[in-house]
Amino acid sequence: MIKKSLTSFRNAVKWILLPLSILHMAVLWTRHKFYDFGLFRVHRLSRPVISVGNIQMGGTGKTHLTAELVQLLQKKGLRPAVLTRGYRRKSREVVVLDTAGSYEPRSIRDIGDEPALLLNYLQGGLLGVGADRLRVAREIENGYAPDLFVLDDGFQHRRIHRQINICMIDVSRWHDHPFLFPLGYLRDLKSALTYADALVLTKYSDNLSQVRRLEKQLRKRYPVPLFKANYQIRAFQRLKDGNVLERQSLAGQPCAALCGIANPGQFYGLLTRAGLSLAVRRNFPDHHPFSRAELERIFAEDRQQGVRFWLMTEKDAVKVTECYPAPHKMPEGVVVVKVSFRFEPSKAFADWVWERIEKTCKNVHFDT
Questions:
Q1: What CATH number is given for 231-341 in this structure?
Q2: pLDDT digit string (tens) for 264-302?
Q3: Buried residues in 105-132 as b, exposed as e (16+ CB within 10 A)
Q4: Which residue ranges make up each domain of the chain?
Q5: How far is CA 305 from the centre of its chain?
Q6: In CATH terms, are 49-230+343-360 and 231-341 the same topology?
Q7: Which fold has domain 49-230+343-360?
Q8: Per-residue pLDDT tens over the stretch 130-159
Q9: Could you tell me how far CA 225 lies from the centroid of its own chain?
Q10: Separation between Cα atoms, residue 4 and residue 12, nearest integer Å
Q11: Which residues contact 346 (CB under 8 A, 6 or more apart)?
């Protein structure tokens, strides 16, 4: 009886939200058309722009793809400037950090957790943080000389013209109907995929039939390159000292998974497929601001259940690290799970990026 009542309540809520969702869709459609017809201005930067984004709520993997793209560019001798919003940071100031020289360390409160993660991957590049990414880009143009810009979470940021526009799709959170959040996980219209130069399908390890069906639908409707990429574990790194742990040293040990990300189920699945035993699973809201006291309480509670290792994502690790200014006081068993994307086929995406840069990004020269 209770289950039936809850189902009826959910259905009633959906019918109430449906008109609001349709109104939201109309607003987004109008906004896109205003940009298409030039009623809203699109600004061109002095250097080419590669955008990585999505049309879903968080969790598609765009920050990790941005990080891997930055690494690809740097290996070719390019100096990228990453433009990122710094979601849920406390400061509103524009922050520009040049990793080619010395710069004043900034806290997570100043730049946000995702920019802090990206900063770990920049080697000589620039990080620009601010809600108005056009303003951040102009500040970088006036004071620095990047080879190109990488726009993190930029699919909806149409004020900036981009030469390469990459859209990621989380297969595990894709639905057939067109309605936006909270009736689903969409934050933009499906028709916006027509603006993409390439589509990247992610997080489909547990959804193989779904990814095949979705791949067929997308290829039929959108004549752009389509890539598939799943997370793979690159390393288990002890946060206290940076030492890499072998998977065998974790396998069979009671572990706790600790994460404040948009799609924790995918993280848990990655760990269990690696043969790890998760005695405790702790979910926190996306971008959760951990505190030292909170972490110490969690560690104490989990030890009582026999937990020896705490596994966390890179995005959570940058926040946990900041809670321990003296690294030697961090528990031995805190481990960051470093991941990378495994593309199918393996080099197809990188080859496409270089081909696209040569074709569309004038005056960008990289090492061969």
A1: 3.40.50
A2: 888 999 999 999 989 999 999 988 999 999 999 999 999
A3: ebebebbbbbbbbbbebbeebbbbbbee
A4: 49-230+343-360, 231-341
A5: 32
A6: yes
A7: Rossmann fold (3.40.50)
A8: 999 999 999 999 999 999 999 999 999 999
A9: 20
A10: 12
A11: none
